[in-house]
User: Which sequence fits this backbone?
């Protein structure tokens, strides 16, 4: 069998949720099925680090697809034309879009419908594209995959799609997220937080991630506790980040907030494992990989009480209303004041993280790909 794979968001040192998900699963599938060929379709020069097996054929189809018109052109004209040479049996689309002008059966992965719930957090041209084409993408795809039961139910509610067409294939924490010893923690704190304990947020600086309310919550925590705790923010400046940067200029506790930008995996894994707690107050998530990555690192998690996050964290996280800085701050204070609660949440978190597994998810997705190809 020959499987085409859309890999346009596999970019070295720029992987985030969608990219990590695709990369982890694809690495396993191509190595576990050497008898099949995989055509990785990039839209720009790629890193050889993504070509992890001899059964991968990488191709570049330009121009780069990053905006609404270029999406339409790339998915519907350029990529299908380039794939004619290879005659794939199936085309895996991991990033929410698919081609409307190809006869190749497609498996479409849709992580969430955030644009439906928080349209103000999506660039207008992307919002227009999602609204115009998402229903058509879902109908066109032979199989639809999503990452949580929440997202599956949301898709069914928003679009008239039969439940049997949608499969849930969750993410997991990457292998390097693991507990570290006391000495390593002290080294990390010395290098990034002036030797102090710190709360950690991981993710792009983007309105949907709710950093403004996190800063307000951190102010309340500092006001109530008078501790020297720091707040570390590890993530790239993604979109509409000016409000956060402007807020920090006059922020009372500016010296206790550290912006780390996008970090290489080895650094992010150490910083996560050394955190006092991870605070992830996003307004909306289809899954929320940082939650599971923190848990696997033995670090307690405070997350939002909405969308998929309670499903992912189960009873192993503390949940707050993302619209309430007071609610977030109370959980931060609770962890700080009660070491028993903190230890219990860390223990439960490690158990919860173990219930997610990339190998199992790769097997699930492979079965879906094979079924779609057989029924195509």
Assistant:
């Amino acid at each position: 069998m020959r499987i085409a794979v859309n890999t346009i968001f596999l970019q070295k040192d720029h992987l985030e949720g969608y990219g990590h998900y695709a990369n982890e699963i694809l690495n396993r599938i191509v190595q576990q099925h050497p008898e099949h060929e995989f055509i990785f379709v990039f839209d720009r020069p790629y890193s050889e680090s993504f070509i992890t097996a001899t059964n991968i054929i990488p191709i570049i189809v330009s121009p780069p697809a990053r905006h609404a018109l270029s999406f339409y052109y790339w998915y519907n004209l350029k990529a299908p034309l380039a794939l004619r040479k290879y005659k794939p049996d199936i085309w895996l689309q991991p990033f929410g879009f698919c081609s409307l002008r190809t006869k190749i059966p497609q498996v479409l992965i849709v992580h969430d419908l955030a644009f439906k719930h928080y349209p103000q957090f999506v660039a207008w041209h992307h919002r227009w594209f999602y609204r115009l084409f998402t229903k058509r993408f879902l109908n066109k795809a032979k199989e639809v995959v999503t990452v949580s039961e929440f997202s599956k139910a949301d898709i069914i509610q928003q679009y008239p799609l039969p439940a049997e067409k949608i499969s849930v294939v969750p993410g997991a924490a990457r292998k390097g997220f693991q507990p570290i010893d006391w000495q390593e923690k002290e080294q990390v704190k010395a290098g990034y937080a002036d030797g102090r304990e710190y709360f950690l947020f991981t993710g792009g600086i983007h309105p949907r991630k709710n950093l403004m309310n996190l800063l307000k919550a951190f102010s309340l925590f500092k006001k109530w506790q008078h501790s020297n705790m720091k707040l570390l923010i590890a993530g790239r400046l993604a979109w509409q980040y000016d409000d956060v940067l402007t807020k920090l200029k006059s922020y009372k506790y500016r010296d206790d907030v550290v912006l780390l930008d996008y970090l290489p995996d080895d650094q992010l894994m150490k910083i996560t494992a050394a955190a006092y707690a991870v605070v992830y107050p996003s307004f909306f998530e289809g899954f929320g990989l940082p939650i599971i990555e923190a848990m696997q690192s033995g670090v307690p998690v405070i997350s939002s009480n909405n969308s998929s996050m309670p499903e992912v964290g189960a009873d192993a996280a503390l949940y707050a209303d993302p619209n309430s800085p007071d609610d977030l701050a109370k959980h931060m204070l609770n962890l700080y004041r009660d070491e028993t609660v903190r230890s219990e949440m860390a223990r439960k978190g490690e158990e919860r993280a173990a219930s997610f597994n990339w190998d199992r998810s790769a097997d699930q997705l492979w079965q879906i790909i094979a079924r779609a190809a057989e029924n195509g």
